[in-house]
Each structure stands twice: as C-alpha cells, then as structure tokens.
Amino acid sequence: MKKIIILLVVTMMITGCSSEKKQKKQLDEAGRQYYEKYMSSLKGINEAEISLGMLNKVNDEKKEEYKLNALKNCKDTTQVVFTIKDGKIDSAKYELKCD
User: pLDDT tens across 31-52, in order?
Assistant: First the structure.
C-alpha cells in the first residue's frame, strides 16, 4: 500500500511540474511575440509586463492567434515580466496564477 501511495505522489509531482513547464513555455513564446510586435518600438523601458489578459484580448480581437491552451486554467493576471537591455529581451520572470 505504501508503494502505491509513493508512486501516486511521485506521478502527481511529475505531472504538475510538466504542466507548469508547458505553461511557462507558452507564456514565454506568446509574450516574446507580443513584445516584438507591440512593445519593441518603445524607447527607454527596462521591463515589459505582458499579462495573459493582454494576450487573450489580442486573440479575441483576431489580431493574432497565440497558442495559449496550456494556460486555460490561469487567471488573466498571470504574466511574464521581461527585463529589457538595449531594446532586446534579456531575461524573463513568470508569475503563474493557475488552478
């Protein structure tokens, strides 16, 4: 019985990590595309915050078609924050707010 419980816990941990990794990947890819199209021309910014709500809005308006299916259980306040250096994305921090 203990082996089954341990196996179940390990499986749940692996699945959870895999899901979070997919969420971060989709948020990163869509966020980078959004930054390049809508924000890269802004001068003098050090950070760019791109929320799931912003990405969903553009999708809803049919201006873009960002792949966001891994984020369907996340709140619109989920975001990626890019650090900008010389107009280019240098690093990213993720704030996932998902069920």
Answer: 999 999 999 999 899 999 999 9
Spatial strand order in the sheet of 47-51: 47-51, 79-85, 88-95
Tokens of 59: 């999708």
Entry pTM: 0.79
Rounded distance between C-alpha atoms, residue 8 and residue 35, angstroms: 40
Tokens for 6? 């341990």
74, 66 contact by CB (below 8 A): no
What's the CA gap between 48 and 35, in Å, rounded? 8
What pLDDT score does 8 carry? 46
> CB neighbours of 46 closer than 8 A, spacing ≥ 6?
83, 84
- How far is Cα 59 from Cα 33, in angstroms, rounded to an integer? 13
Q: Is 72 helix (H, G, I), strand (E, B) or coil?
A: coil
